[in-house]
Amino acid sequence: MLKKTLAALALGTALLSAGQAMAADYTIDKEQQHAFINFKISHLGYSFIYGTFKDWSGTFSFDAAKPEDSKISIDLKTASVFTNHAERDKHISSKDFLDVATYPDAKFVSTKVVTTGKNADGKVTADVTGDLTFHGVTKPVVVKTVFLGEGKDPWGGYRAGFEGTTSIKRSDFGKMMDLGPQSDTLDLDISFEGVKAK
């Protein structure tokens, strides 16, 4: 009886450990430029300014069978803002907006993942909730996310890819230069591949 009990416990522990080990760790492939954080914001209500952040990194854990257990962490250098106009980038980096000297880093850390179904292409969708620290303020945001796929790459690695969108209000993240209500919303478009840890 004791042997059967010990065997059952050992089997249960093994199965539990196997289940916990299924989520794999990935590093976002920013080095090979397979990752982007782009943004769009209204310019006085007359047009839109588009830009990107060139310097950022991140990691995530993911198991397609249990996407709700996924986690992601992203670190971004605010001084890497780029809108294809040097003087504008300098102004955005100043105290009027990002104040990169005081707030050189922005960070997103997920706190919850909830699957929401599939999109028109049959891709799994999810709401990824997390804490965004930006301009000295931390607030929860929800990123609408699509799991694009996973598989082996030609270089012997294994990859998983995602895209996501979210919008934030500049006025929620500390005092910045007021450009009117039409320029308060910042739309973010995120796309990346992660390389599985070996």
Report the C-alpha radius of gyration, rounded: 20 Å
Low-confidence segments: 2-20
The helix-and-strand class reads: mainly beta
- Proportion in helices: 10-25%
Element pattern in H and E: HEEEEEEHEEEEE
Strand order of the largest sheet: 1-4-5-7-8-9-10-11
Q: What is the strand tally?
A: 11
Shape: globular
**Through-space gap between termini:** 41 Å
Strand content: over 45%
Q: Count the DSSP helices.
A: 2
For the residues shown, what is the average pLDDT? 91
**Major sheet summary line:** 8 strands, antiparallel, barrel
Which structural traits does this protein have?
about 200 residues; mainly beta; eight-stranded antiparallel β-barrel; 2 helices; globular; disordered N terminus
